[in-house]
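Example A, followed by Example B.
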Amino acid sequence: MAKRDKGGTLARRGFVQKAAGLGAAALGGLGTTAADAATTKRHWDLSADVVVIGSGAAGLPASISAAEQGAAVLVVEQNYDIGGHGIQSGGNIALGGGTSLQKKYGIEDSPDLMFNDLAAWHDYRFSDREILRAFCDESPATFEFLLAHGVKFPDASPIGSDGGPQNVRRAQVVIWNGGASTFAPNAGNGTSLMRPLEASARKLGVKILLQHSMTGLIREQQFTGKVLGITATHDGKTLNIQAKRGVVLSTGGHTSNVNFRRMFDPRLTEEYQVVGEPYSKQTADGEIAAMQVGASLWGAACQTVETQARSHIFEKPYCIGNQYGYPHGGGRREENLKDSPIKGLSHAIGLQVIDYQNLIQVNQVGRRFVNELATGFDWWNPCLEVNGGKGEGGGPIWAIFDADGAKREKWTCEPPYVDPNGWFFSANTLQELAGRIVSKYQKTPISGAVLEETVARYNSFVDAGKDADFGKTSPKYKIQTAPFYAAWSTPCIHDCLSGLRVNGKAQVIDLWGNVIPSLYCAGESAGGFNQHGLAKSLTFGRVAGREAAKTA
């Protein structure tokens, strides 16, 4: 694989040029007024035909697609390596409409059939029809695009979609078996998607600038004219980067920005951690920069509407006892994280729950509030709503279990499997355990008497064989054997289903319904398509890069 440019000396290839004194105004910093723009000299530190912001599941396809059109492409990546959330994903890619794999296994499909299915499905009915139509039309070609650029799928029939109508098998999964390493930060299947795309992009001459952060868009005037480029920072220095044909925003969405996400739902307060962190964050940089030059948001209801898709936004944690609720180290119980770059950041692998009969979940005041076996809306809605009368949001949720429960789950209740720095606690009594639960999100201490009362009541349900409070099916196990444990079990925020308004060509639309010339957006930063998963990012990344490269 090509040597990665860590953002030090920028190699000068044909398309990366220093340019100075290139004419009229630039919005070198966010919030520059139109009057300022009319009088400011423009200076470009770097220049390319197409500038792509982000190197995840939308950004890399965008860069490849633009390069295939003959454009010189520069990718600006905030992280130390490529991949974004995509490299950590499960690798489920719901592309259909008549792919070669569907045809091989006798699955009848077409863009028209796919559109009719998706438009009628109870969640996707909230989607912008132009965007949905473009997705279905572009879906088969996107699958072949992935094959052409080195992505290998198992020779097996497609399966049901990960969030979507199940009447036609349209999803296929890439597989990674190599374990966690610098190449595969959490051993996710997404490694087998993102690394081949990276290699293909570099082979096509795409320049990737790592550890460079976009700080704003440069437009001819604040709310009119073409987007000319971006401002970015690296090592404390500000760079003006020219995009001769277009800028593609593929910055990953807004879930990591508490202030921004609360615009969609004020209940999404700070205690809810974000899937995909700490390797990559979704900071709303792309959305904010575009809004500051007039872009509109789109499909805001998709982020809040209580449908099945919402269960992919706000979900039951895959793991307990660690901060981010996702399995680090590929979720393997004995995974060795010594070669993983996120070991020191994530602090713990987490404990994957096999059977929720082995624990109860309590809110921030120590009261049980939900059927622990529930999933989707039935589980996360009580989590958002219950707060014990203490402030906004649902507050921390703790999984309470005992030594017998840990033994049944085959858990090792010590680092690196759990994080004792605010995310996991143990004690020989419930009274003592309650006193040890200390977290910056735990606004008031849990009463030991309340926790004892909660556990005693649940144990009585085990004796009775019936959960009289929340309907948990045949409660099986008492919590009675020391030591006792409390593990962080608070919901995670996952996908973005709302973002910037785009059309079927991935062009960004402004507040007045007009295209912002030379500005494109794809992936989770784009709104209007209520889909969970990789397919929309890959498809519209490819579309955005192609269309940007066509710009005169």
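Example B, a separate protein, is given below in the same form.
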Amino acid sequence: MWARRIGAVAALIAAAATVLVADGSDGSADQGTAIRPIVWSACTTGMEGALGLDCGFLSVPLDYAHPADGSVKIAVSRRRHTSSDAAYQGVMIMNPGGPGGSGLWLPMIADYFPDDIAAQYDWIGFDPRGVGNSSPSLSCISTYTTARRPPYIPSTIVVERAWLRRVKSYAAACGRKYSATVLNHLSTADNVSDLESLRIALNQSTINYYGYSYGTYLGQGYATRYPDHIRRMVLDSNVGPSEVWERSNLSQDVAFEKVMQKFFAWIASYDRVFHLGNTRSAVVHRWYSTLAQLQKHRAGGVIGSAEMTDIYLNAAYLQINWPELGTMWSNWVRHQTGQPLVDYYGAGGDDNEYATYLATICVDAPWSRTWSRWKSETTKMHAKAPFETWGNAWYNAPCAWWPVHGHAPMPVGSRLAPPILLLDHTLDGATPYAGSLETRRLFPNSRLIASVGGTDHAASPDGNPCVDNRIFTYLRSGALIPRVRGNQADAQCKPLPLPVPDQLQAKPLRAGFRLGTLTFPSLRFRSTVWRRHVNR
């Protein structure tokens, strides 16, 4: 039970009031838009319901420059502070990444922080426009994410044409289902305006913000446009704003390859457990022979080479996944046990996250609209980074045929922004480390903590005291480490040790935590349903 800071009478008065957004600092205008406070009630569905959170909706214009063109509803959740009003530190708005990731469950992350910090904030989650419980909630082809897809590598013209039909049909379906007006207003810049509207609806002069992965780009945009509306901000695994989004996917391919090579070396170091090869090169050879086998004979009748790549991309996100992934691969190779792979992959059948992902990145910045250029760049990159390059290309390829063209990239950078805490691992695959260095340069008051040699992505706090204690100090008091000179991290930490296979542990690792009979994913675990970029 969380204490309520606002009495019933005050809540009724607030529900009837309206306030105005009056910014317009980016020239696009949130001028004179009426923003109503959120009317809260107990969440009744999903993780947020099981967690006992409050839920409500924020109504905002589809187009802030033309509010008469219609509105969208943003689903919002809240875990209320339990501290005294004197110790209260305001709202902590969180975004899990994506774009397209649902954030209604995210206030549960308060349990990963010390009790005093958890108690001092109102923890706020939300589904960005187009996502989950927000309205409209995008879906273009609901079955698009299901299994039994062609292999990613277009080794024949038949495979290439099959994928081109798929990506073109998806882009066309989105165009048929949603007007150009809607598709033009699902960008990160629009989400920045929504974040400002959320601040106003919550009756806060400033906000605290914690963004993971793509959520760092949203935070960067907000800190650029509204630097005086930030109290504290933590950005974990930073997107490089100069590379959104076509170039960033090519950079991602190289970074993913480095992590996967480290994963393969780890598998080789435990050959007595996995029996997949006792050198990295032997394990790599086993991987590609496994993919070739799955093209001919799907594991469990479902998992082919594309689906197998999707599953094992999780190794490039979080090292805690490695023991389970190693065991499943070994059991398939040695015993043809395919059901665990099928269960891990999931059923698919919901493309909301993917649709919103594309609806955001395809308009955030211009994309090449010529397939020959896509094919040439991807072929060159595949020679350097074969694990994920073609999978990444097909995942993003609908942007080449998206019904609306990309906008000019959102401005990022501010000398006026208050001190921001940046976090990253130097071998982060999903958001390469160069993005955090760039973000540090663009926000001269920021500080960067780097886990040197670590590969985890968007996982804080994760039990590493060198990083976590600095986060906790910042959230308690606003204190940060001194900024050092040069293009480098302001503090360096050793990453957490590499995991040990379950078979060699007294207690096997478990992903997530249990609440009653329900299991919820922790930030240290990501399930994959057709390359879910919950953390980009």
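On Example B: The longest helix spans residues 246-269.
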